[in-house]
Amino acid sequence: MEPRAWIQRHGRPAVVAALREAAAVVRDEMRGGSAPSAQQDIERRLSELALNRLEARALSSLRRVINATGVILHTNLGRAPVSNAALERMATVGAGYASVEYDIAAGARGRRDVHAEPLLRELTGAEAAVAVNNNAAATLLVLTALAAGRDVLVSRGELVEIGGGFRVPDVMAQSGAILREVGTTNKTRASDYAAAISDRTGLILRVHPSNFRIEGFTARPALAELTAIARQFELPLYEDLGSGLLAPDARFPAEPSARESLDAGADVVSFSGDKLLGGPQAGIIAGRADLLDQVRRHPLMRALRLDKLACAALEATLQAHAAGRAAEELPIWRMIALTAAEIDARAAGVVAALPPSFDAEIIEGQSAIGGGSAPDVELPTSLIALTHKTLSATALEAALRASPTPVIARIQDGRVLLDLRTVGPDEDAVLMEVLKNRPD
How many Å apart are CA 417 and CA 334, to the nearest integer? Predict the structure, then answer.
């Protein structure tokens, strides 16, 4: 045993606890007759058990994984991976002190909510912008700051729930705003909003339905129609966009963008930083300067603000968009741009390196955007379909997850499927090493 080295790495209390747990196990084994009898073998067994416990304790629950699911914005896997430029900015800012709330030019206290604002104004066309820690926080803050104690008009067809139990009515209740449903589940007209307005009305809310769709006999007023009503009654119009698309993109025809919503007359919009924006977790609020001033001054702003690392990563991400380099620098946009032929070539390399215990076939498939963004968009891809000579698909998938670098895959028709669209090219070698060393 090497307790001194263990103490140096794990600390004395952890080592003592691990040795006591290991000794208890060995005692139980001795009572049952399964423990080794030689002193040297007993010490080896104690060392093995204690070391296993120490390594398990030291293993972080938040680990880097290989996403082979083909879901680009996988909510459970952290959505958008950030760019190298964002990582470098975070490392620079996080390694020491930073001008988070310090105005270097003035030599006085500054504000943290201004760091990304010039870029956000440029990219969205908004008069003002601010970032908080996610889009749910943005929604809560806007409703609280602009409509607490007053009616907020929302179409019944937009009272959605998205991943993690985020429900629009629940957030509205927490904000202090009063939900006033208009229209029906499948059809809401502009006249329904107009008829519901009273002296208690504080705001009109339009919610992007994210990954929810009603098809068939439906109607929803255009944003321009709601803008006309909002102007007529001098009410602010707020659109919760969700996905973070900055400008219209032909690849996502059903996905509204911040710029077109503001151009169409929305007074305030909000969207996520870690979806189609391709940056860190954040909620962006953009729109009229007078309304953003109310948002900034609200006490909740301090509770929901970004930390310095997220500020740094967001600014680097926005700079890539502003310079027209998003497709080259931001991982999710590189993934979206990959063709099935490019993925097929990489898949062939992985299959060629597999040991004989695998049977593999490259098949056609579809990748997904994920994260509640562009649910109707499917990207053609090439999938590696794996079977193993001794392991079932369930056992193989579990073995991949249990690897030192966990590989997250999916099972379909009794085979494990790997989609390299969401596997970085620099991760191919790691993936092949995992496949070579899987348990038989």
Answer: 21
Phi, psi of 287 (to 5 degrees): 155, -145
**Which residue in 376, 378, 279 sits closest to 336, CA to CA?**
378
Token look-up 């490019």 returns 342
The two three-digit tokens of residue 345, written as one number: 């070539």
Beta bridge mates, 201: 151
Residues 6+ apart with CB under 8 A from 103: 109, 110
Instruction: Please give the Cα distance from 321 to 326 (Å, whole number).
Output: 5
d(CA 138, CA 115) in angstroms, rounded, equals 17
Bridge partners for 179 per DSSP: 152
φ, ψ of residue 158 in degrees (nearest 5): -110, 10
Question: Comparing C-alpha atoms, which of 151, 117, 119 is closest to residue 131?
Answer: 117
Could you list the mean pLDDT of each consecutive 10-residue stretch along the chain, which spans 440 residues?
A: 78 87 85 73 83 79 92 94 97 94 92 91 97 94 96 87 70 89 88 94 89 70 94 96 87 90 96 95 97 96 94 97 95 96 96 93 95 85 95 94 93 96 93 80
DSSP for 28-67, written as a single string: HHHHHT-S--SHHHHHHHHHHHHHHHHHHHHS-SS---EE
Which amino acid is residue 214, in one-letter code? I
3-state secondary structure of 313: helix
Rounded to an integer, what distance in angstroms lies between the CA atom of residue 423 and that of residue 429?
11
- E strands, 156-309, are 161-162, 166-167, 178-182, 201-207, 237-242, 268-272, 283-287
Here the contacts of 21-30 (C-beta below 8 Å, separation 24 or greater) are 21/49, 21/50, 21/53, 22/46, 22/47, 22/49, 22/50, 22/53, 25/49
Pair of tokens at residue 37: 């009898």
Closest CA to 72 of 398, 338, 402, 272: 338
Tens digits of per-residue pLDDT, 364-387?
Answer: 999 999 887 887 788 999 999 999
**Could you tell me if 424 and 387 are in contact, meaning their C-beta atoms sit under 8 angstroms apart?**
no
